[in-house]
């Protein structure tokens, strides 16, 4: 693929702010995302997790500061993909949804059918390939979206609380898929507010409070030696406002 | 991937429709030459064209497309070059048309007459009157409902002329009883039928008209009710797009013994509608 | 149209003149809707997806033009196509092509305005997802048009209904020439002016029946395909 020459890593945020009118979602945030184990973005509701992921993806332009993808600052899509918190299913079959993403990723037409089957198999939806995507359950739609994201063969895979509304079995399934992607070289950046999930998946943790970067540490350091009061409180299940 | 499929289907559908349209247009025009004749509603609505045009087309291979409008509108179509031949009934306007250089030459073709139509109850008390001027004066003085075409058609011009002949200045004395509808003969008859009003009509349209309700002829036979039809070729010097040769052939046929006979033969229930009276022979 | 026959007899006997009138009506209307769709769908989508100075004014203009008076459209096209008008040399006045042009102009704002609304709503839902998938501007237009196809069928039907029911424009630019530019609506107007009200009503019933049949077919198609893909 032509895009292979381009790389999005390291992803560096330099004093990035994001605001809409009087509301500030991100406040002068510095962050470097480098290849390696999954980075989990943690924080209470409204801390700016979704905003951070959208800026990382290039869906939102920062109001101030710069985002740098592997040395480039234009938001043009490189090899990154994102799973939205509430993925939107195109009004077509499950297979057509995946084939569409493959086409957009530049997969040649004659490979698409085989690749679609491969991806659907990976997310366990091969049996539902012909079904209208919008008729699937929430968990199934989440997996279709995951297949679409994986179709891009991403170097960075951003996931916005992919298991928020799933039951434990579905959560485990999705986590397995994510781990597999991570093991095959994709950099995972994933928002979560489930501490158990963070312990299971994370290499490092980004902890946000009210749009500010409160802490960025390895998962061991974060849980054992939190350096901020807010992080300590959050880990102990207290309310952080 | 279904998008290219969609596009292909869409384009195929559009191409099919356009081909169909083009072919149906082509079918109508491919078989023969065609001319556009701007004429009046009376010649069409009376059924005259349905009778004579097939005879001409069979003989000449020329298709005649009739656009039926009021005389004023038909002359305008000629002025703009949108018709090849104008076939109307308002002598003064026709002569002006030729004089201004829009028409080549005017030929008398046929005549019929106007009739005054009114409700059976005859509120103006004019039924059977031999004098149209007296009848109109009576309608005006009794303010009996009267429907006027008001559309600058031949019949409208004729009506205005008759008021003048009756010594009535209609523009000055008109009131709610005088209803100017600005529409064709059929619409005027429908209105008169609905309102039990008097209305001036050409005899041919009246005979062919079906929604008469309580209307009947109240005045006829006055020589001032004479209604002459004339035909003119639109001047090709003015509008090079005019199909002068087939247009003139149509005019020549109309005033030929054969065309005149066809006009004279046309009748509804045995009643003749138009009386051929072409005088000139084309030199 | 033969003398003294009722509309029902004409319909039952499959009168050749009647069939050619129905065929011409359908052909002209479908062609006009097709032309208006080819221009109106992308135009509506573009208006939904782009921001430029004067866009609001254009949106208001197109919305307002949904209610264009047919007579004004007819007169404008007449003056344009007249031999004395700027496009006179093509000799299109009083031909079916002129009727297609006039009706397409009449229908275009309806299709463009409804498309813009539909696409704008769908774009709000799809924006992040399509951007995240790296879909370019052309791909967006195509995807949004395709994914709102069921709503857009309704827009096309609205256009079809307007064109099929319309008499003012086609009368002016077509001239109601028998066997050439005479449609269902101009025939109804003509029979009314001849005072043959039962025949006019009968033809009116045929027209309404046709419009209903086409709407029913479109509705059925929508249900059937929604079942399969939506």
What is the string of SSEs of chain C from the N terminus onward? Answer: HHHHHHHHHH
Q: Which stretches of chain C of 5+ consecutive residues score pLDDT under 50?
A: none
The CATH topology of chain C corresponds to MetI-like fold
Helix content range of chain C: over 70%
Q: Can you tell me the residue ranges of chain A where pLDDT is under 50 for at least 5 consecutive residues?
A: none
Order of strands across the main sheet of chain A = 5-6-7-3-8-9
CATH hierarchy class name of the largest domain in chain A? Alpha Beta
DSSP strand tally of chain C: 0
List keywords for this structure.
heterotrimer, B: 283 residues, alpha/beta, D-Maltodextrin-Binding Protein, domain 2, 2 domains, ten-stranded mixed β-sheet, 46% helix, C: 230 residues, mainly alpha, MetI-like fold, ATP binding (chain A), ATP-binding (chain A), P-loop_NTPase (chain A), nucleotide-binding (chain A)
Describe this structure in words.
The complex is a heterotrimer of chains A (241), B (283) and C (230). By secondary structure, chain A is α/β, with parallel strands linked by helices. Chain A folds into 2 domains: 1-79 and 155-241, P-loop containing nucleotide triphosphate hydrolases (Rossmann fold, 3-Layer(aba) Sandwich); 88-153, no CATH class. Chain A is built from 8 helices and 9 strands. The mean pLDDT of chain A is 90. Chain B folds into 2 domains: 32-112 and 226-276, Periplasmic binding protein-like II (D-Maltodextrin-Binding Protein, domain 2); 114-225, Periplasmic binding protein-like II (D-Maltodextrin-Binding Protein, domain 2), CATH 3.40.190. Chain B has 12 helices and 12 strands. In chain B, the strands form 2 sheets. In chain B, strands 1, 2, 3, 4, 5, 6, 7, 8, 9 and 12 form a 10-stranded mixed sheet that branches. In chain B, a hairpin with a 2-residue loop joins strand 10 and strand 11 (271-272). In chain C, helix 3 (55-65) packs across helix 5. Chain C has one domain (7-229): MetI-like fold (Orthogonal Bundle). The mean pLDDT of chain C is 89. Chain C has helices spanning 7-13, 16-49, 55-65, 70-81, 96-132, 137-147, 149-165, 168-174, 184-193, 197-229. Chain C is globular, with a radius of gyration of 20 Å. Chain C is mainly α. Chain C has 10 helices and no strands. At the B-C interface, helix 1, strand 2 and helix 9 of B face helix 2, helix 5, helix 6 and helix 9 of C.
């Amino acid at each position: 693929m032509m895009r292979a020459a381009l790389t999005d890593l390291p992803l560096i945020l330099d004093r990035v702010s994001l605001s809409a009118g009087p509301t500030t979602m991100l406040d002068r945030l510095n962050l470097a995302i480098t290849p390696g184990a999954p980075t989990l973005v943690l924080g209470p509701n409204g801390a700016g997790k979704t905003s951070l992921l959208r800026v990382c993806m290039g869906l939102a332009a920062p109001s101030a500061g710069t985002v740098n993808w592997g040395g480039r600052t234009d938001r043009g899509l490189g090899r990154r993909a994102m799973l939205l918190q509430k993925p939107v299913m195109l009004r077509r079959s499950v297979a057509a949804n995946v084939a569409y993403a493959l086409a957009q990723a530049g997969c040649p037409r004659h490979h698409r059918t085989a690749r679609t089957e491969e991806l659907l198999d990976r997310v366990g939806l091969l049996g539902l390939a012909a079904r209208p995507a919008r008729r699937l359950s929430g968990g199934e739609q989440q997996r279709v979206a995951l297949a679409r994201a994986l179709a891009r063969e991403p170097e960075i895979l951003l996931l916005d609380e992919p298991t928020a509304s799933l039951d434990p079995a579905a959560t485990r399934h999705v986590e397995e898929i994510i781990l597999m992607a991570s093991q095959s070289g994709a950099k995972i950046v994933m928002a979560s507010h489930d501490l158990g999930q963070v312990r299971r998946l994370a290499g490092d943790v980004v902890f946000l409070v009210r749009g500010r970067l409160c802490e960025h540490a390895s998962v061991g350091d974060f849980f054992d030696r939190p350096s901020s009061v807010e992080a300590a409180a959050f880990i102990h299940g207290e309310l952080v406002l | 991937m279904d998008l290219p499929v969609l596009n292909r289907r869409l384009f195929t559908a559009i191409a099919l429709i356009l081909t169909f349209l083009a072919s149906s247009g082509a079918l109508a025009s491919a078989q023969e030459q065609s001319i556009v004749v701007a004429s009046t509603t009376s010649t069409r609505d009376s059924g005259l064209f349905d009778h004579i045009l097939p005879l001409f087309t069979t003989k000449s291979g020329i298709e005649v497309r009739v656009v039926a409008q009021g005389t004023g509108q038909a002359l305008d179509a000629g002025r703009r070059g949108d018709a090849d031949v104008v076939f109307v009934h308002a002598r003064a306007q026709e002569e002006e048309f030729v004089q201004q250089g829009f028409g080549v030459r005017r030929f008398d073709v046929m005549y019929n007459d106007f009739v005054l139509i009114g409700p059976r109850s005859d509120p103006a008390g004019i039924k059977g009157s031999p004098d149209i001027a007296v009848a109109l004066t009576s309608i005006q003085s009794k303010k009996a409902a009267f429907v006027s075409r008001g559309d600058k058609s031949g019949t409208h011009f004729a009506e205005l002329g008759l008021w003048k002949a009756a010594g009535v200045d209609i523009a000055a004395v008109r009131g709610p009883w005088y209803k100017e509808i600005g529409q064709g003969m059929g619409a005027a008859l429908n209105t008169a039928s609905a309102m039990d009003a008097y209305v001036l009509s050409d005899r041919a349209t009246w005979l062919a008209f079906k929604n008469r309700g309580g209307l009947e002829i109240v005045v006829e036979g006055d020589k001032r009710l004479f209604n002459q039809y004339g035909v003119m070729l639109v001047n090709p010097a003015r509008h090079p797009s005019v199909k002068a040769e087939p247009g003139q052939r149509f005019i020549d046929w109309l005033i030929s013994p054969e065309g005149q006979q066809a006009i004279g033969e046309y009748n509804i229930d045995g009643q003749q509608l138009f009386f051929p009276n072409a005088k000139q022979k084309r030199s | 149209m033969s003398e003294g026959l009722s509309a029902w007899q004409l319909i039952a006997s499959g009168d050749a003149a009647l069939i050619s009138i129905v065929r011409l009506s359908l052909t002209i209307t479908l062609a006009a809707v097709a032309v208006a769709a080819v221009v109106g769908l992308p135009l509506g989508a573009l208006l939904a997806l782009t921001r430029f100075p004067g866009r609001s004014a254009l949106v208001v203009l197109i919305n307002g033009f949904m209610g264009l008076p047919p007579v004004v459209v007819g007169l404008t096209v007449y003056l344009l196509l007249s031999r004395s008008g700027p496009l006179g040399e093509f000799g299109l006045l009083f031909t079916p092509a002129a009727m297609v042009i006039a009706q397409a102009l009449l229908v275009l704002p309806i299709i463009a305005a409804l498309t813009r609304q539909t696409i704008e709503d769908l774009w709000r839902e799809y924006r992040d997802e399509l951007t995240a998938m790296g879909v370019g501007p052309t791909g967006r237009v195509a995807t949004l048009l395709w994914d709102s196809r069921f709503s857009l069928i309704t827009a096309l039907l609205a256009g079809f209904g307007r064109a099929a029911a319309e008499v003012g424009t086609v009368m002016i630019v077509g001239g109601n020439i028998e066997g050439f530019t005479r449609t269902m609506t101009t025939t109804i107007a003509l029979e009314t002016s001849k005072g043959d009200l039962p025949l006019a009503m009968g033809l009116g019933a045929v027209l309404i029946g046709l419009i209903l049949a086409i709407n029913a077919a479109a509705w059925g198609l929508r249900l059937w395909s929604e079942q399969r893909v939506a």
